[in-house]
C-alpha cells in the first residue's frame, strides 16, 4: 500500500526550554499505558482522582500519539497565523459576543487585561467537526489531519482519562465519557493560539500578566505541552507556580463544568499566563488546545448517584435555574474579557454569569 502523501508545510522551530531557576508546580503524571492492566488501572484511577480533587491539573503521557505528529500539528498551527494575511483573518473573525462561540479568529487586543492594556494573543478556533464552517485557504489542505488530531484527543485521550475519573467517583467508567459524546450534540473545539511579545510599558502596567488568573468554563482543557514557560497554576497553598514542559505530554486542567457536575469534588483549576523568564523573553508562544464540553443538552448539576459525591457532600452547585451546557458555554464565552468587572475585598475581580460568581484573579 503506497504511503499517504501529506501536503507540505513550513516548519515551526520550537525554542529551547528555559535554564532559569523556576518554582515548578508538582503535578501528577497519568500514564495511559499503565492503565491497560488491572493493577495499573487501579493506580491510575487513584492518581487521576486525587490530582483532579486537589489541584485540578495533571499531565497525561503514553497516550499513543507520536512526537512527529505533534510537531507537524505545531507546524500547521503556525500556518494559520503566518500564511494568512490580515485581510483574510478579518473575513474569518469570530463573532464572539454575538454567537457565544470562539469559532474563527480572535484577533489581538480583543480582551482588556489591566490599566488600559489589551491582549497580544491571537487564536484560530476550529469546531469539533471541521466541516461545519469554511476556513482560510492556507488551512484547508490540512483539515483532514486536524480532524484526526481532534478525534484522537477527544476519544483516545480525554475519554480515556474520563473513564479513570468516573471510576474515581465510584461510578461505571462510561458515565463521564457518555456525557461527552463525539457527535453533533457536542460543541468541543480546537484552538491554535499564538502569544506575541509585549512592550516594556505594557508589562509594567499589567505586572507582567498576559492573561488574568481564571478557571476555564468547560469540563476539561487539554494543552499539548510546549517549551515556552509562561503558564502558571494557583497551587493548593495559594501560590502561583509554573507548569514545566514535558515533551509529548498533555497538560490537562479541570474546568467549572466538571466542578459543578461533581458537586465540587473535582476542582476547577485557576491558572494564568505571565511573561516568560529572561532567557525566553521576546519569544512567541505557540499552542495547541482542545476545549472539551459535555453534550449541549446536559444540565450543569451534580451527579448525585456518585457514592463519592454522597459521602463528600455537594460543595458547589448552581442555584436557581440550572443551565444546560449550551446556555452555560455560550453565556460564559460571550462575556469573557469584555464585560465590566467588579472589585472584591481581596483585590480580585468578579462578574455574575448565569447566577454564578465568576472570579478573575489579578
UniProtKB/TrEMBL annotation:
Please tell me the species this chain comes from: Auriscalpium vulgare
Name-wise, this protein is Clavaminate synthase-like protein
